[in-house]
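@channel sequence for tomorrow's demo:
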Amino acid sequence: MSLLTKSGGILGPIATVLGYVMTGIFAVLAAMSLPNIGLAIILFTVVIYMIMLPLTYRQQKFSRMTPLMNPELTAIREKYKGKNDQATMQRMNEETQQVYAKYGVNPAGSCVQLVVQMLILFPLYRVIMNVPAYVDQVKAVFTNLASQLLKTPGAEKYLKDIAGSIQATTIAKEFTENTIIDTLYKFRPDNWTALAKQFPDLSGVISSTEKTIGQMNNFLGLNIANTPMNYIREHASVWFVIGAILVPVLAALTQWVSVKVSMAGNTQPEGSDQMAGTMKIMNNVMPLMSAFFCLTLPVGMGIYWIMSAVVRMVQTILINKRLEKQDMEEILRKNMEKAKKKMEKKGGVTGAQIAQNAAINTRKVDDQLSRAKRMQKAATGLDESALTRRANVRPGSLAEKANMVSEYNEKHRKK
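structure tokens (generated this afternoon):
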């Protein structure tokens, strides 16, 4: 691993680990005569999301279980409505946690996945911005030229002056081979031409370095170290402009579709209109933010953004298909057994109490089922949300009974 400008602080070790992963992937591609950084980013994205698959599965499972949990969670909130003392809030929290344990979900799972994604995204930005610092094969492309520039009079001042114009890493007071490589990696075609003109004795090594790194950074005609905004500003060719615009557009589109796929079939909790409205706004704003980021960041970041959305979509579809094939009542039974053993070990609520609470919830469903059916016969029809809930559960299952109780409670409140 090279010692070029790396991400420091708490994200430094994460960036270093990601660099090792990138190095391994790039080595495999190089062995296949495909030493392309864009392809390495695509494969890297797939590997990272496969590692995060368990977190993704738990998050999706929670989303699928939410409609089944809602009747019980709503009943708990109604039970303690208007009571805000500490003891009451503690009891409500305990009963809520018992429901989560019964269904085998953790509401914090989605937050954990988001944190993990952000902990990966920020170091990944540093890796892509300074690929030679993390991928030895890429650093080797610049080593010969950097060592010769270090010995050439006037090269240090020239590169320091040009570093600011290309938004390169801030150059240290003491110019080294590593800081030269950091600057050279940000070079655009006009910078390479100017460098060869400024130092004609090095024109041969400059030309070969530009050609090699250009092939590594080329992805569908775009240099992944450059930004779409720079392409739009500097290239008169309409094809370069179209290609550059496609990066943020595809990033926004895939992000939007990914959100739609993840939300498909998930019912919002009752009484959460405000939350649903907030989520809708966020789901519409995030794709626009993705487009802005991918417009101003290197193309390599856009590739990661697009691929991450595509991989999430595929994972979501496959996970949903797996969950649809599972027997929900069997899942509940297993979750109750796990919850009993876990609580008995902690010395808190006993397994018997959990089983009793689960049985009480089931009996309440059975007791109110007949009344709910009578109410349905008298009613003129069901609203759209009720029909949706009924369509998503198996006839005669516990989930259907829970929905029947929910519909009965809604009509009872209307009276």
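heads up for whoever presents: The chain is about 75% helix and 0% strand.
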